[in-house]
Amino acid sequence: MRWLFLLLITWLFQPFPLWAKGIQVVLSESDGAYEEVSRAFLAGLGAGREVTVRKLSDLQPEQAKTLSSGEDLIVPVGTRAARFFAENHVGHADVLALLVPKSTIDRSGLPDSHGKGHFSFVYIDQPLERSLSLVRVLLPRAQRIGVVLSRFSGISPDVLIQEAEQRGFSVSLSRVAEAEEVGHAVRRVLGSSDALLLVPDTVVVSNASLHSILLASYRQRVPVVGFSPGLVKSGAIAAVFSSPEQIGKEGSVMAKRWLATGVLPESRAASQFSVDLNVHVARSLGLALPSERDVEKEIEAHR
Amino acid sequence: MVKLKQTALFSVVLATQASLASDLTEADFLYGGSTVLTASRLAQPLMDTPNAMTVLERDMIEASGYHTISDLFRLVPGMYVGQAKGWFHNVSHTLADEYARRMQVLVDGASVYLPSIGGVRWDALPLSVDDIERIEVVRGSNAATFGSNSFTGVINIITRHPEDVDGKMLHVTGGDHGHREGWFRWAGLSESASHRLTVGHREDGGFAGQYDDERSRILNYRSNIELPARQTLDVQIGYLDGTRGAGDAGELLDRPREGDVTSYSAQVDYRRPLSGASEILAKMYFNHLETLDTVPVNLYGATHYRVDLQSQRWHAEMQLNQDHGAGIRSSLGGFVRGDSVNSEHYFASTEDLFAGSRGIFGHLEWRIAPTWLLNAGTFWEDYDLVGARWSPRVSLNWQPSPRHTVRMGVSQAYRNPVLFETHANWRLTLLAANDVPVVTSNPYVLASGGVAPEEILSGEISYMGVWPEKGVSVDARLFREHLANFISAECPTGSNCSGLSPSTPRDFFNIGDTWQDGMEFQLKWYPQPRTQIVLNYAFLHIDSSFDEQRYSPPYLVGLHFMHQFPGNVGLMASHYWTGAFEPIGQQALPSSKRLDVHLSKQFDLGEQRAELSLGVENVGNRSYYEFSYSPENLFDTRAYVHFKVDF
Asked: Cα torsion at B540, B546, B550, B551 (round to 10°)?
């Protein structure tokens, strides 16, 4: 019996659960950002894990179906890979999609008729309260925030107003149905805003509209707060965002939990974030901004 | 092996088919970012400017409720605003003068300074307060950037971009002294252009004891056109005509009459971004002002005489702005200008008098070290009447932190004599009914043309600091200026220059020099987000070699309180204290106090936003003398009601 007992002990103390759980990472594209997510994800997981990293271009739908019928955790990185697995999901495999915009997920929500796997996401966008805290940290005396929303933003106006009020802001809100209305809507809110908050919304923020939004805001000396480093480069004074690395890291935390308990945690934004500032535009508007590090610390403190 | 029951909390089928192009992907977050606000588009922040500057933003302009452009300058530290007649205002920064001719005044960068007699006819500007985006005031000389006559200050009124005003606006005002004003603005967008058209009508009875009523019709059009490759063209046209009451029933040769005034202007601005952060700007403008007073007389068989004056200016300039990297930005340009005036009354000729000028200007902004910024610039102008001169300016800004700036600057500037100061031949020609000359007086002023330009050498130390968490900002300026070759019309010693037909005319001379030492201070405080308190304080000490020793108020104080009440109600209260002084050519004025209040309420009129407000000037009827120490210039309490609607 002793060897049975020994076997039991070894089994209890082995670092991995009995059933072998692997992780299948699939990158939407082969460029830098996706690789960074993958690297940070792997680094966070630590050594000795069973992880396979593939490119979406190397996968056929049948393979996706097979994977979805397996036991491994599927980790698509990017919208294309996430879509691919959603469409070809026939089994019970859990899916942890990284780097996907929240509004895209919300908007496409339909009762599923395919597999019964649990889907969780690490969103690329920031929780609203973080963006609002950013505005509060940069503009301590600001009172009114201007926002233009279309129905594609994925943000509920009521939630926005509530969160804003908690931070001492009133919201000047303008809703649009299509791109042609954006200019007029922006003009409407600029007149009564201490800052313009740009949220991820392809109708409102597009290559076509960005130029005139930034110029009009600048002319009226209203600082713009965006949601990506690209917007800061264009002329927004600041943005809070999670880098591919930070998203990969968050993904690894969730994957480790899945490995330990078999349950995939709820979808969330990355807990780590960065702030980019456009000091030139800010100075030109007469704003003396703290350093990016200090802003990040302040936002943490505001939570 | 136990299989955990999988609950599909979040089973999603992400639609494949024609998924609306409006679906975001991570690409929208990761990529993108071509610089829209390039370095050349960015205005120099106040902390980097070579001079102490005050910017009046639209929110303060609207909160004040002032409907006369010149009244807005009461909000700027160190500016004296005087009203000689109902429609005749003078705005000056030190050297208060009826024809405040020692400041440059621009509308969107185009000078509205009168080449004939100097100064600005504020009442003849074809512009509404509603069309002003902001006003930038340089409190000091900066000819290097703004050209000659940027002597004691520069005012640049920036109008609202047509893209920033939407739809239509109606603004009507009614108030004391028969004040009626109505403005209508229409703004629209087409494929690649935006337009704004404003028309207005204004009438006012002026001071109770003076014949100084005003009637004006105004039109202002501005259009911004986008051309390929991010080039833009901005076109502005302004027109004003109307009547101006003048005269005094008790004066033999200054009987009451309604004078005519007409002014029109046109301006074109072109901008072309170049590779890197550079751009080329080109500007052309033209303005024209004419006034005609037919003054009735009853003397020597004559029935009337005419006071006619026409001033025209055209100007063309080009400028290259470059960002060289390594903290160096430069601006280089050249201009050509022509001034022409015509007046039989003032110049004894039916011919146009012309004076041309041409010049170049350059400016360098160099961040020598992270906390040191150097601004150096110069302006070279060759003006027909006086020859060529350089106006250099250097200033060093020390910025120990982004919150504090100390500026030290020195500049030299010139004020060219205006055509009246070089060519005046001012006579009175009395005419009979059919315009036949009856008699012509001897000249009152005959300019021999020998005056040299006035020179100013000024030094300033200024400080700017902000404490954003406390909502406080401070602006303080200490300056010392020396004005040489002060120009004045004087009677040669021993002669008699008075009377209806003087035996000797007055002439313009460079009569002396003056030292001006002063301090200007502004404190802005937001005790809480809905309240703003502004304190402006200016002090000036004058030491002149000529008679006038107190030609500007020794102190100018303004205390402003702004508050936003719930329910979209806004209040602004402004109290002013002006020290006693003696304006040039006028009697001594006692010190004065004045309280202005503006209360407004915004509300929705169906789908439109509307505003009803009440403005009271000189609350409490503490009558004081405006600019001139005579009973006709007693300023009483005036109330105005405004109604504005955007639709």
From this structure: -90
Please check whether residue B497 is in contact with residue B517, taking contact to mean a CB–CB distance below 8 angstroms. no
Phi and psi torsions of B351, nearest 5°: -80, 155
Mean pLDDT score of chain A: 87
Query: Which residues does chain A have within 8 Å of residue B33's beta carbon, measured at their own beta carbons?
Result: 228-234
In angstroms, what separates the C-alpha of B491 from chain A's closest C-alpha? 51
A235 touches chain B (CB under 8 A): yes
Structure tokens at B67: 């409907």
Whole-structure pTM value: 0.88
**Does A268 contact B at CB distance below 8 Å?**
no
> Does A20 contact B at CB distance below 8 Å?
no
CA-CA-CA-CA torsion for B64, B65, B66, B72, nearest 10 degrees?
30
Closest by Cα among B120, B121, B101, B111 to B337? B111
Closest to A303 in 3D by CA, of A86, A79, A133? A133
Q: Cα–Cα distance between A52 and A49 in angstroms, integer? A: 9
pLDDT confidence band for A16 (50 / 70 / 90): very low
Rounded Cα–Cα distance for residues B537 and B477 (Å): 10
Give the residue with greater pLDDT, A286 vs B429: B429
Tell me if B585 sits within 8 A of B569, measured CB to CB: no
Residue A259 vs residue A17, higher pLDDT:
A259
Helices (H), B118-274: 143-146
- Give per-residue pLDDT as tens, A239-249: 999 999 999 99
Spatial distance between the Cα atoms of B289 and B313, rounded to a whole number of angstroms: 9
CB B246 within 8 A of CB B221: no
Measured CA angle at A165 (ends A164, A171), to 5 deg: 60
Q: Is A230 on the interface with B (CB under 8 A)?
A: yes
- Cα Rg of chain B, angstroms: 27
d(CA B444, CA B504): 8
Whole-number Å distance between alpha carbons of A176 and A193: 18
Distance from CA of B86 to the nearest CA of A (A): 33
Taking 70 as the pLDDT cut, the residues of chain B under it are: 1-22, 98
Question: Do residues B165 and B183 make contact, with C-beta atoms less than 8 angstroms apart?
Answer: no
Minimal C-alpha gap between B41 and chain A (Å): 9
- Of the candidates A82, A210, A289, the beta carbon closest to that of B36 is on A210
Mapping DSSP to helix (H, G, I), strand (E, B) and coil, where does residue A37 land? helix
- Strands (DSSP E) along B545-591, which ranges? 555-565, 569-578
The per-residue pLDDT for B14 is 35
pLDDT digits over B508-529, tens only? 999 999 999 999 999 999 998 8
β-strands B404-415, B425-426 pairing: unpaired
Predicted confidence at residue B18, as pLDDT, reads 33
Distance (Å, whole) CA A251 – CA A42: 9
* Contact criterion met (CB < 8 Å) for B8 and A112: yes
- Residue B302, min C-alpha distance to chain A (Å): 57
Q: How far is residue B425's CA from residue B420's CA, in Å, rounded to a whole number? A: 8
Nearest by CB to B37, from A79, A152, A235: name it: A235
- In a mutational test of the B interface, the residue from A38, A71, A104, A234 whose CB has the highest number of chain B CBs within 10 Å is A104
| Residues B227-254 pLDDT 10s | 998 899 999 999 999 999 999 988 888 9
Closest to A101 (Cβ–Cβ): which among B6, B10, B25? B25
Residue of A nearest to B469 (CA): A140
Report how far residue B462's alpha carbon sits from residue B477's, in angstroms, rounded to the nearest whole number: 4
Cα torsion through B335, B52, B134, A188, rounded to 10: 120
- Backbone phi, psi, residue B73, to 5°: -75, -5
Contact B12 A119 (CB under 8 A): yes
Q: pLDDT band for A112, please (50, 70, 90 cuts).
A: very low
